[in-house]
Structure formats: structure tokens, C-alpha cells
Amino acid sequence: MGFSMVWVIDLLIHLAGLRPHTVALDDDTTVHCWISSSLLLPSSAIRSKEKKAKPLLLIHGFRPRGTWQWSRQVWPLAARFDLVVPDLLFFGGSTTRSPIRSEAFQAAAIARLLDVLGIGPPHRASVSVAGTSYGGFVAYHVARALGPEWVERVVIASSDVLKGPDDDRALLERAGGARSIDELLLPRTTADLRRLARLAVYRLPRFVPEFIFRDMLRNLFSDNLEEKLELIKESP
Questions:
Q1: Which of 4, 106, 118, 184 has the greatest number of CB atoms lying within 10 Å of its CB?
Q2: Do 96 and 28 contact (CB within 8 A), yes or no?
Q3: Pfam families given for it (predicted)?
Q4: Closest by alpha carbon to 151, among 135, 160, 134, 139?
Q5: What angle do CA 208, 209, 213 make, to 5 degrees?
């Protein structure tokens, strides 16, 4: 197997103490996530620990998968929290046959995931939720669906609730070359991906080899394009 940034990121997440886990919520919907290994223990084992870490749910934005959005935060947060990092539907390993594309439906799937995993009352302590960008809207719906008994704190970051057409036009001007938001967010060529990276990555290295972008495009950005386009159309 050749070098792959996907493999490298997964290895780093694994070394931070998280493990991949896939849950079939029903016949139509499957959610993939990375979770702290302690959350795979029975509830009785968790209760026997002298120090219980609080569960923290991290919801990604329009990145290809949860661990890529939160790769820099997982290590410091894993030292203090039991982490749950799901892939939203149509990202990473999460899929559904449902035609619904709303943030509320994404949130309902995550809420069911937590219940199946036994995370939150009455099994464990209440969970805190953090979402960024598109994931911030999902985080809001998760908190609203589960209520204060389940959700202790909510962090919503970089979710522009007042975004309008003028903001989209300004973003496209900054990006340069993209004709629409979906063309910007759903790269189909390495040139498209380089443009998105220049806009989205803080301090992007001046030189990134072409094979890195080819690997990312093939393994992270090429799946479920039509469904992701529908998500963009449904999002605020």
C-alpha cells in the first residue's frame, strides 16, 4: 500500500485513544464514528473508575469526515474527555437511504447513535456538544432534540446564522474561479481541491505535492457528491 494522508490521520487518531466504530441505526441508516476506547466498556466498568471523563460530542462541518475536521483538537481533548467523533450522513462511512437532507435529520441520527452506544443518561453522565460550521447547526438540533437532561453544554463555532447571498458572493470572490458554493465545497479535480485548501486551511504550506491532493480527492472527496449537493441546498 502506498503513502496515504488518510492512513496517517487515522493512525494519529488511533494513538490518541479513539477507535473506529460503525452502528446500524436501522435498515436505512448507518453511522460511522471514532470514539474513546473507554466508551466501549460496559457501563458497570465506567462506574467503577475513580475518575470519570465527561463525554464530548464533536460534530464536523463540510469536511470529508469528522476526524479530519477535528484532527488537531482530538489529542488535547482526549486527555480530559471521552470523545465521540461521528461522520455526518454522506460523509466518511455514514450513509442513509432516507430522502431527508435536513440538519434536524442529521441530528436525529446522532442522537440515536448516542443512545445505542449507551452515552448519556441514564447510562453515563450528560454529554457536551461542539459543532463547527455546518456542524454547528446540527449541534443546535442535537441539543434541542435531547434536551438539558442529556446535554450539559453546547459550543457552536463558525456557523454563520445570518449568512446571505452577499456573503456567498464575497466568499466566491475570495476563492477565485469557483462559480458557485457547491462547486467550491465539492472539488472534482486537484485544482479545485487546491483552491478550497487555500481558502480553508490556516497557514497552508507553500508547496503541497500533487500526489497528496490526488490521494485526498480519491479517498475523501469523491463519494456521495449528489447527496452532498442536496445537503448544501438544504442548509441555511
A1: 106
A2: yes
A3: Abhydrolase_6 (PF12697)
A4: 139
A5: 85
Query: Which residue did the predictor score with more confidence, 182 or 121?
Result: 182
Per-residue confidence at 50, pLDDT binned at 50, 70, 90? very low
Tell me the whole-structure pTM to 2 decimals: 0.92
Identity of residue 116? V
